[in-house]
Design brief:
The complex is a heterodimer of chains A (about 190) and B (about 700). Chain A is of the alpha+beta class and about 190 residues long. Helix content of chain A is about 30%, strand content about 20%. The longest helix of chain A has 18 residues, at about 30-50. In chain B, the strands form six sheets. In chain B, strands 2-1-6-3-4-5 form a six-stranded mixed sheet. In chain B, strands 8-7-12-9-10-11 form a six-stranded mixed sheet. Chain B has a two-stranded antiparallel ribbon with strand order 14-15. In chain B, helix 16 crosses helix 18 (about 485-500). Classes of the chains: A alpha+beta (about 190), B alpha+beta (about 700).
């Protein structure tokens, strides 16, 4: 029992250093599921310690660029999100979404909810791709990103996603159309 | 079990109430087609489905199961399919139990709403639509929707759900519009050729289930789900996903510059539209706008193709008439396979002087205008609203041929290739297995499970690997002796089991099984490892390939038991399955392909090839493998299927499945061995005396 407690402490300490469960699995002798549970617990405690959870600063800018090649009325909407997490120091990043490339497969939304919540759901996804099956291209798919924070949690670039240990954010990784990209340079 | 939501929604339209059936009892059937077949068996009145030559399928007693699967709503690639099963009015010579499936986003939304499937029974006294928003299910008045095309129905329902609010943001816990499955005029007018359509172009075409919706006074089912699908091992699932996609999907796709098939005019920017959780295929394409100025054309399957040949034959290129046809066939919810096959057949009747004003088949459908938009509008309107000749054609082409008195003649000549139980989609196959399997079920099987790899040796080896318990390396032998051998019987048995399970997970037919794959080092596909790993990650339980095929066998036997109740017998399992009629399949004349490269072709295909109007319509001249003296070689030599040998083959196959060789019915031992003792008892009770 004592060992478990110390392992838990060790795990919490490592989480505090900004490590993710997958990065410390070889340093603690805990089962993967247990480690993930501790991580959730740690996040909850962390939130309480800081009193009211401070929302990250978010800069949302939308830029309409010139029509895509060969397009008539096609416009490419580029929305950039820049945020600084209250807990973790993040590099400045931008997620670019090209709605014209989206095929509405919803992999991004599924990966987001799965990586963060451990279950698949459209409503629990931070990224929201919204399609009108009867709409005209290119205006038949639009995206929303954390506009209504009461509805979904905020994007954290998967830094605190317990079920994700990829190098890149989950949504961009899983997009089969190459419609989501992450960049460190401002596209505007 | 993880992956399941635990509840199945049963809609009793007669009583206008929604009930919950616990999923627990049906978990052994995995989901989708398997669970749907089991639910149908439990819910339907057995007297009603015994000898279906007396019924139409439009009775309130018909039970329609609309089933996503255990993987639906998860991130597993290709899970967007939904299986629909019930008594299909389109079946000929009698309505039979069959299934049809469609893609899009409907199935996952049903799961997010908290249901493993929807069962529809009874008949509403007035037109209704069903509004499902999570646990809140309401059966609403649809008199104002009745008579509308499907697209207008969708728009109206979305409007009613949103009220004064606008789409594009959060509405009641979701940003998504409701997913709608419904019918247009063809279904309302009880067309046996009516399909169920969802979204813009996803549809369950075969069987005439649109007519079943119409017979139940059910216009549409709309679903919004804000919940989630629980997964046993989320991290593992994401890992397996990345492993599978890396090997399966290859490079990301890019938006196409215009519809790839049946292109109208010059290339335009377009969107590749996919089903839920589709990998890179995105087999549909949406263009900016169609020539007809409607919502844009979409779809790359039969609905997109069925009028292209006529349009191009008349004008030298596609002019937009085919685009209008695509729109209309979906808005009216007509099975495009029927619309297509029927049109080419009607054309031959016209050319033979049998059809036209004042002719044997008197109609004002003007074939001098074939290829124009005006013609196709007239044709489809007649089919959908049962106007004039449309009243007979809406019964399906086999029944129409019977009514016109040309069924026998046209089956024999091959003008009417209704060899798979009269249901639309009687197209080419790439293997004799396709034809046999269709014959043993109640429709064209449409299962693309047998594909050829780089060499025949590799192909033979790979299928041997995939097909326990036999692991037979000669299953691919399509020689003149091979097609009647036990090896082919094994491949048919394997395909029946696998394809049953594919509909149960569900997996898209385009992706599974992954037999060969250029992305892997040895060129081998990643089945069955992929299926096993995905299932384990989602449910937390192991399901081996052997077990998957074993459950598939159980499903195949339950399906067979239902067909036996309908009146299925060995005596009718021929091409076509309506004795005493015979068909071109068993004959071989010069210039008419019979069994060429393992495929059935018709005279119409030859005509098309001659016209060179449309390459996709022609019979693919594929090579098939033969095994002789210890060596594999390719052959393209056509040969006829011999009726007597086909009969002997059936004996081999029935023995392999443990079915009575006299009747083609499962024996009691077989059913009990599959855990279907109650099914055996029910068959006995209904007067079907099984061999022990």
């Amino acid at each position: 029992m004592a060992q478990t407690t110390s392992q838990k402490k060790l795990a919490f300490q490592l989480f505090g250093e900004g490590k993710k469960p997958s990065q410390i699995s070889n340093r603690v002798s805990l089962k993967e599921q247990t480690l993930l549970r501790y991580f959730q617990e740690w996040k909850r405690l962390k939130g309480k310690e800081g009193g009211t959870r401070t929302k990250g600063q978010t800069v949302v800018e939308t830029a309409k660029t010139k029509p895509v090649a060969g397009g008539t009325a096609a416009k490419r909407s580029v929305e950039t999100i820049r945020r600084v997490s209250p807990r973790t120091s993040l590099p400045d990043k931008y997620i670019l979404i090209d709605d014209t490339k989206c095929s509405n497969c919803m992999f991004c939304m599924l990966a987001c909810s799965l990586a963060h919540e451990g279950k698949t759901s459209l409503s629990l996804s931070r990224i929201q791709m919204i399609a009108d099956p009867l709409g005209k291209f290119p205006f038949d798919v639009v995206h929303k990103w954390n506009h209504d924070r009461s509805a979904t949690p905020q994007c954290d670039f998967c830094v605190e996603a317990p079920y994700w240990d990829g190098d890149e954010v989950a949504c961009a990784t899983v997009c089969p159309m190459g419609a989501i990209t992450v960049t460190t340079e401002s596209p505007i | 079990m993880k992956g399941h939501t635990g509840k199945i929604l049963k809609l009793d339209l007669t009583a206008r109430k929604a009930e919950i059936i616990p999923t627990k009892k049906y978990e052994q059937w995995i989901g989708g087609l398997g669970m749907g077949t089991a639910l149908f068996w439990d819910e339907v009145d057995k007297d009603y489905i015994t000898d279906t030559s007396r019924i139409s399928g439009f009775e309130p007693k018909n039970v329609l199961c609309i089933m996503p699967g255990i993987l639906s709503g998860t991130i597993v690639p290709g899970n967007g399919r939904v299986d629909v099963c019930g008594i299909a009015p389109e079946g000929y010579p009698r309505p039979q139990f069959l299934h049809s499936n469609f893609g899009g986003h409907f199935g996952p939304m049903v799961k997010f709403a908290g249901y493993d499937g929807i069962v529809v029974t009874g008949k509403a006294d007035k037109p209704v639509w069903v509004d499902i928003r999570d646990e809140n299910v309401q059966i609403k008045d649809a008199r104002h929707l009745w008579g509308l095309g499907f697209f207008d129905t969708e728009k109206q329902i979305w409007k009613e759900i949103a009220g004064k609010r606008r789409y594009g943001g959060w509405l009641d816990g979701t940003t998504q519009r409701s997913t709608i499955l419904g019918i247009g005029p063809s279904g309302e007018n009880l067309g046996r050729i009516a399909c169920l359509v969802h979204g813009l172009d996803d549809g369950a075409g075969l069987g005439g289930f649109g007519g079943v919706f119409g017979s139940k006074n059910l216009k549409a089912i709309s679903v919004i789900g804000t919940g989630s699908v629980e997964v046993a091992r989320p991290k593992e699932l994401l890992d397996v996903w990345q492993w599978a996609m890396k090997l399966k999907a290859g490079k990301p796709n890019r938006p196409r510059k215009g519809p790839a098939l049946g292109a109208t005019g010059e290339p335009k920017p377009s969107r590749s539209v996919s089903c839920f959780a589709c990998t890179t295929l995105a087999c549909q394409s949406k263009s900016v706008s169609s020539e007809t100025g409607t919502v844009g054309t979409i779809g790359q399957c039969v609905e997109r193709l069925f009028y292209v040949a006529e349009d191009t034959a008349r004008h030298g290129k596609a002019t937009g008439a085919e685009a209008a046809a695509t729109q209309l066939v979906q808005d009216y919810t007509i099975n495009a396979c029927e619309a297509w096959d029927m049109l080419t057949w009607l054309e031959t009747l016209y050319n033979r002087g049998l059809l036209g004003r004042g002719k044997h088949i008197d109609t004002d459908l003007d074939f001098t205008k074939l290829g124009t938009e005006e013609f196709v509008r007239d044709y489809l309107r007649k089919l959908a609203f049962r106007e004039g000749i449309g009243n007979i054609l809406a019964e399906g082409w086999a029944r129409a041929a019977e009514k016109f008195g040309v069924l026998e003649e046209d089956l024999k000549s091959g003008e009417l290739s209704a060899i798979h139980w009269g249901v639309g989609h009687q197209h080419w196959t790439n293997n004799i297995v396709w034809a046999y399997l269709s014959n043993f079920m109640a429709r064209d099987c449409n299962a693309h499970d047998v594909t050829y790899g780089p060499t025949l040796d590799q192909t033979a080896e790979r299928y041997a690997e995939l097909a326990p318990p036999w692991h037979d390396p000669l299953m691919l032998d399509q020689s003149q002796t091979g097609v009647y051998s036990i090896h082919t019987a094994r491949l048919v048995a394997w395909d029946s089991r696998f394809t049953s399970m594919k509909g149960s997970f569900p997996y898209c037919d385009f992706f599974h099984p992954d037999v060969f794959n250029e992305q892997t080092k040895d060129g081998k596909g990643i089945s069955p490892e992929m299926e096993e790993r995905f299932y384990a990650a989602v449910t937390g339980e192991a399901l081996s390939w052997e077990k998957i095929l074993e459950i598939g066998r159980k499903m195949w036997n339950l399906n067979r038991a239902i067909l036996v109740l309908h009146g299925r017998h060995r005596n009718e399992e021929y091409f076509p399955p309506f004795p005493p009629y015979t068909s071109y399949v068993y004959e071989h004349e010069e210039g008419r392909p019979t069994l060429q490269s393992g495929s059935f072709g018709t005279r119409r295909d030859v005509d098309r090839a001659a016209r060179k109007s449309f390459e996709f319509r022609t019979l693919p001249v594929m090579e098939y493998g033969t095994y002789k003296d210890g060596k594999w070689s390719y052959s393209t030599e056509p040969f006829p299927l011999e009726k007597a040998k086909h009969d002997e083959f059936k004996t081999l196959y029935y023995n392999l499945e443990g079915w009575d060789t006299q009747t083609g019915w499962p024996t009691r031992t077989t059913l009990v061995g599959c855990g279907l003792k109650q099914v055996a008892d029910t068959l006995e009770k209904q007067g079907k005396h099984l061999k022990p």
